[in-house]
TrEMBL record:
Keyword Transit peptide applies: no
Protein residues bound to Mn(2+): H114, H116, E121, H160
Disulfide bonds: C37-C52
InterPro entries: Cupin_1, Germin, Germin_Mn-BS, RmlC-like_jellyroll, RmlC_Cupin_sf
A Pfam family reported for this protein in Swiss-Prot or TrEMBL: Cupin_1
Protein name: Germin-like protein
Record: residues binding oxalate: N111, H116, E121
All residue ranges annotated as the Cupin type-1 domain in the record: 66-214
Organism: Sorghum bicolor
Cellular component aspect of the GO annotation: apoplast
Coiled-coil residues: none
Family: Belongs to the germin family.
Amino acid sequence: MASSSRSSKLLLALLVAAMVACPLSLAYDPSPLQDFCVADTVSSVFVNGLVCKDPAQVSAGDFAFSGLHNAGDTSNAFGSKVTLVDVRALPGLNSLGISMARLDIAPGGLNPPHTHPRATEVLTVVQGQMYVGFLATDGTLFAKVMSKGDVFVFPKGLLHFEFNCGASPAVGIAGLSSQNPGLIRAADSLFGATPAITDEVLAKAFRIDAATVQRIKAQFATKK
């Protein structure tokens, strides 16, 4: 009976330990173990994140970024511009698991379908109107027309987009749950890959012929 009791207590202890350890093992960005870990952008050491700068060399400027008040240049094929403030732009973000961006979209413009493999995104519309949405893994579309002051969240890793459905420029401010959220544009990745994905693969995947694949690839020959 005593042996059974000891076994039960041991099992309970292991379960508690597993519950405590699990959130730590699932943490995505490195968690800070000191007040800050300003990125040393000139270090050649490769780690998961960026090496810390000597605290004696850190200044207030390492925690500041200026420029989000400036409108992005939307004179491109998509009619949109993302100004990203990640750890490369703001070294003080290193190990803090957060970044942000300004999104400018001209009337009729589009921030094309894309994913952030390392981050959930929450978008606040601060000007104009946007039709925004994301695709769940079962193909269900969750989309909505958003106006000034509205907020929409895109779950981590899911394909999403923003389209200016209004008559005036639209602006959004996004928060992302990673210092380096990453960006994979669906069309660019498939039709503008280097080296190229074979025509046969793309033709079969999209149920089109190889000639159509070639025409689409030509549109992505020069990425902007």
